[in-house]
Amino acid sequence: MSHYPPAHHQDTVDAHSHQVVLKYPLATLVSVQDNMPMITHAPLILQDDKLVGHIDKNNPHCQVLKENKPITVIFQGPQTYISPSIYTTEQLPTWNYIIVHATGTVEEISDSNKIKESMVAMTTFLEAPHHPYQLKLDDPRMDRAVAYVHGFTINVSNWEGKFKLSQDKLPADIENAKQQLIKTNQQNIADFVEKIFSSHF
């Protein structure tokens, strides 16, 4: 466990980190090559405490997503500004968040059939629970697509939950902060997505 944030904002129960990964699978992958950071965003699925994913083979990040090279992966859950106005006590402004860091090493999936299996597994997970679409291993498009895909598995050696949830406040204030986190994320997402789409289409 790292020394920051403070211990009361850290969660060392792996199962709690897994819950975040399952709900918010889009990850930020961070590697280093020649003292320069390499950063990619991609969904990952959790399989037997390992993270499995794939990216475009043309992505330069593929150069270090193999050979047991070190990697850090970040998953971000809900987050929001917390105004002192919601508290029953005098407080200062802050920001609450649910974030998970996973560190480990990464191996390339070189077998094309294994890559296709991982793509099917990811689609099955993401289409849950009703599965309106099912990706088939024998879909002929898969044979063409797999040539452009770099598959990989991350062996996680350490999970760190960064759960800043006003844990150091009174119970009433913790509850108010929880409701603010829920409310802000529900209200903001629709307006924000509409704005982004209107500026791009």
What characteristics describe this protein?
globular, single chain, eight-stranded antiparallel sheet, PaiB family negative transcriptional regulator, 37% strand, Pnp Oxidase, Chain A, alpha+beta, 201 residues
Q: What is the strand and helix layout of this fold?
A:
Layout: E1 10-11, H1 14-23, E2 26-33, E3 36-43, E4 45-47, E5 50-56, E6 69-82, E7 94-109, H2 112-126, H3 140-145, E8 149-164, H4 171-200
Antiparallel strand pairs: 1-8, 2-3, 2-6, 4-5, 5-8, 6-7, 7-8
Pfam family, one: FMN_bind_2
Protein name: PaiB family negative transcriptional regulator
InterPro entries: Split_barrel_FMN-bd (IPR012349), TR_PAI2-type (IPR007396)
Task: Characterise the protein shown here.
The chain is an alpha+beta fold and 201 residues long. The protein has one domain: Electron Transport, Fmn-binding Protein, Chain A (Pnp Oxidase, Chain A), CATH 2.30.110. Helices cover 30% and strands 37% of the residues. The protein is built from 4 helices and 8 strands; from the N terminus they run βαββββββααβα. The chain has helices spanning 14-23, 112-126, 140-145, 171-200; strands at 10-11, 26-33, 36-43, 45-47, 50-56, 69-82, 94-109, 149-164. Strands 1, 2, 3, 4, 5, 6, 7 and 8 form an 8-stranded antiparallel beta sheet that branches. The model has no long low-confidence stretch (mean pLDDT 94).
